Amino acid sequence: MAQDLPFQSIPPAPETFSSEHLIIRMIQGLGFRYFWATEGLREVDLEYSPSESGQTCRETLEHIHGLAEVIANSTQNKATVRPPLEVPQKFKMLRSETLAFLKIATEQLKKMNPKELEALEVIFERGGGQVRFPLWNLINGPISDAIYHTGQVVSFRRSSGNPIPKGVNVFLGVKN
Fold it and tell me: How many Cβ atoms sit within 10 Å of the Cβ of residue 14?
């Protein structure tokens, strides 16, 4: 297990509810699920596809990487360039960067007050033009989409004979 990667567990919950805490917790939940969905993946798992026309597990992980980049950039009010300029070719780097993007997002959000959070936008840049969306779209868009696709990775690896490690408890955010 990669000891230096974030989200091996979810930190204790904050004592108060706030918009910042809720969005941080959603990203932490995603990070935890992604960490364990990708821990111990083999080359055969990365090549697995549920059908000839479906994406491989590797392609799904590349998509999650792009979503995590949008999440991180949005918490910094930075534009995300589409199509992506570069996606790591080595799985270890792809996994590490995806988790780092999610860590950046949580750290940025922890520093913000409600007014700063409200001012954030999801910004896409394509062909020199920009399109902006309110932060709400981050929740129903990239965060929810990344959680959805992380579940696909879990299913793919189970189908290729490599289920997630025993003891992963997504409800408590720990691995026993």
Answer: 13
